[in-house]
Amino acid sequence: MNKYLLPSIFLCISFWACSKKETYSEKEIFDKSFTHLGQVKLAIDSVSNFDFTEFQVVLEEGVELLLVMNRVNFSFDFYDLETGEMVKRTAIVKDEKFPIRALYGFFYHNSDSIFLFNQMQLNGISLLNGKGDVITQFSPQKVDRSSPQEMMKSLVNHYSRADNMTVYEAGNLYFSDMSLNGFLSSDEHMKAFRPAVKVDLVNNEVTQIDKITVPDFYHGKVWPMGLGNYSRIRQGDLWIYSWSALDSLLIFDNDWNHLKSVNAKSEFAKPLKYSAGSGAPKDIEIRERVSQTTYSSLLYDAYRDVYYRFVTIGREMEDSDLEEQFPQVKNEFSIIVLDKDFTILIEKRFPGKIHKPYKSFVGKKGLYLSRTNSFYEGLSEDEVVLDIYRFD
């Protein structure tokens, strides 16, 4: 296994956010703290999808690439972030010995070691080489099949997305679990739920990290399921969590001990008000979803040594929201910039209906924001337009 899991330079990226009330032009919003460096455009061919959700920024031979997992074509597509050109496409080889179900999530460790993850479970984790061949698979999870209820408890609804990436370190994979059991529905469920999961690939074991729990802030109330979302990143020896409803960031050390909670509150934040956790009438549920200011992705910029915390800014509900599946993507959003010591430097507001904040990522040039919002008038299925902003 060491043959494929050699240390390498990689960049883990995350993303997500949106929202707001008044209307601002882009020129008014981006002042000297964010410099617009221009755009890069990724050409999308007939066997690709412009609205990709699984991606990672990687370095190969010193070249910075955006690696996209192409579900349509069952391949890995590599885009040069300097030119926007697709420079390589690696087919994921289908092998009867190591069957792969529908593509879900991945983690690029180096040019010859890429992990593929199945949805809802930890079994069937595939390790691919640079040619797209499956080298081996891991199935460390014990599934209780004694009843449908027990089987549900055995499933792991892991993120494995760019805004909450599964991380490989020293023979272990670290997953973020979202549970399938409605952990925000009661104090009992909140106290029992463990969001962090470790998979030991050497010993073929799965461990829930007992030290990572649902923050005390959530206890004593019933919340809508969406407020259980969180973004987790790995930075140096720290694990850093940003919960959707929590103004603070939670900082843990290498051994998952809680070091501190730091203020990372948005200037647009207001007390959250919800009439019910679930089962509310549709109009109330949507109004509360679009009107609340909440937090989404947390990204680290290694080139400028700052953190970006994305904020979905609440707004008044529109009649058309009742017909939309995800009306909150219309909202304006902001980005809180924090320095390496988690001191807030600035918060900048962005217009809605242009970018898709949770498809943002960091590169050498700066912060990349994707113009793939479904309400963006200039949306094209033939290309992905990325705005590049540098924080000065």
Description:
With 392 residues, the protein is mainly β. The chain has a single domain, classed as TolB, C-terminal domain (Neuraminidase). 7% of the residues lie in helices and 36% in strands. The chain has a four-stranded antiparallel beta sheet with strand order 1-24-23-22, with no helix packed on it. It is globular and about 55 Å long. The model is unreliable at 1-32 (pLDDT under 50).
SSE layout:
Layout: H1 26-29, E1 34-43, E2 55-60, E3 63-70, E4 75-80, E5 86-91, E6 105-110, E7 113-117, E8 125-128, E9 134-138, H2 148-154, E10 167-169, E11 172-176, H3 187-192, E12 196-200, E13 205-208, E14 230-235, E15 238-243, E16 248-252, E17 258-263, H4 282-291, E18 294-301, E19 306-312, E20 333-339, E21 344-350, E22 361-362, E23 367-370, E24 383-391
Antiparallel strand pairs: 1-24, 2-3, 3-4, 4-5, 6-7, 7-8, 8-9, 10-11, 11-12, 12-13, 14-15, 15-16, 16-17, 18-19, 19-20, 20-21, 22-23, 23-24
